[in-house]
Specification:
Layout lengths: L5 H15 L12 E6 L4 E5 L12 H11 L5 E7 L10 H8 L6 E5 L5 E5 H4 L10
Parallel strand pairs: 3-4
Antiparallel strand pairs: 1-2, 1-3, 4-5
């Protein structure tokens, strides 16, 4: 497992908070920001993008992962999820599955406007992740 330094966590937290300001959430008014640390040390961010057809909404975490992949990342070391709440909120099941695709050792830290911080390994949040091994 890759050790994430305090300065790296801090940069990710700042990036996730900034990304939440760009959220498109006219229905829930729940702005979420995420930042991922790629295996090569890069940072990619995402925010939630809601849609009137709610099933088409894309979470901040999946947007950040997609951006990292579009930039060439093939593995992730860490994810920070920021929510404007009093207590931290963990990623949804779909986001957990997508994150697990890029490393079962990925660390996930959930932060908020309050003092609470939650930290997990993706395997802790999704112990039975679906895995596919191509032939």
């Amino acid at each position: 497992m890759t050790e994430i330094s305090d300065p790296q966590w801090s940069r990710l937290a700042d990036a996730a908070r900034r990304a939440s300001a760009n959220a498109h959430c006219p229905y829930s008014r729940f702005c979420v920001g995420a930042a991922v640390l790629t295996g090569d040390g890069g940072i990619a961010v995402g925010c939630n993008v809601e849609n009137a057809s709610y099933g088409l909404t894309v979470c901040a975490e999946r947007n950040a992962v997609s951006r990292a992949v579009a930039d060439g990342a093939r593995s992730l070391d860490a994810v920070v999820v920021y929510t404007p709440t009093a207590e931290p909120v963990t990623p949804c099941g779909a986001c957990r599955q997508v994150i697990s695709e890029f490393g079962r050792e990925v660390r996930i830290r959930c932060i908020c406007d309050g003092p609470g911080v939650l930290e997990f390994g993706v395997a802790d949040l999704l112990p039975g992740a679906f895995a596919f091994t191509p032939r």
